[in-house]
Amino acid sequence: MAKRMLGVDVGTRRVGVAASDPLGTMAMPVETIEVKGVSGAAQRLVELVVQYEAGVVVVGWPLDMRGREGVAVDRVRKFMGAFEKAMVREGREVEVVRWDERLTTTAAERSLIKADVSRQRRKEAIDQVAACHILQGYMDRLRIEAERG
To answer: d(Cα 145, Cα 94) in Å, to the nearest integer?
Structure first.
């Protein structure tokens, strides 16, 4: 059986995390990590990698609408650098994949509004749902590539 995957949406104050089902077909929300310090938030992501026995971490890569790296890339790089250092300290390895996250937060917001989720609950869930969109997009791409051969 393939290892599970985690999707990660790195924000300024929160990091949304989603996990694949064991078969790698569906993304499910897991947790919103409050970023009180980058190293602490990165350590929590390491704990989730261990808990879910993840083999791949798909991180949303914030490109602008022209496909160029925006200013938010520095924040994601810093967080992922701290994550990779924490993984080394734990003696663990995981594949990290960058995934274009353009419009994932917008899509997450729309899906929560469509589901009639209250404004307060949307604020709490938006990062996890964005992480689900990131991870689901990656898994769908893998499935399509496998079907094409």
So the answer is: 22
Domains of the chain plus CATH, in order, are: 4-148 (3.30.420.140)
Of the pLDDT bands very low, low, confident and very high (cuts 50, 70, 90), residue 3 is confident
pLDDT tens track for 84-121:
999 999 999 999 999 988 666 666 667 766 776 676 66
**Chain center to CA of 19:** 8
- Amino acid in position 84: E
| Pairwise CA distance, residues 107 & 85, whole Å | 32
**DSSP E strand boundaries for the chain:** 4-10, 14-20, 27-34, 54-61, 95-100
